[in-house]
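Tutorial, part two.
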Amino acid sequence: MANHPSAVKRYRQSQKRRLINSKNGSKLKTQLKRLKTAIAAKKTTDAKGLLPSTFSLIDKSVQKGVIKKNTAARYKSRLTKSVNTIPSA
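Running the prediction step on this input gives:
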């Protein structure tokens, strides 16, 4: 454990930050998993409905520093492509 008051404060801050970062990362992973299961089940309407909210969450994750900009672009591209290849019933 840290001895200096400034180091103790920094430790407290990093613990709070770690909790926030893990929540944001978990939220993103859950949303991606939800969309991927809709795609796998070939539910076109569900997948197209989830796409905008997933994109929004991906963009927010970039702003918060959870993922990088190019990673977000890659996710969005691949998800859009996979949603568009689902045969509409």
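The domain at 5-84 is CATH 1.20.58.110 (Methane Monooxygenase Hydroxylase; Chain G, domain 1). In part three we will examine how such features are distributed along the chain.
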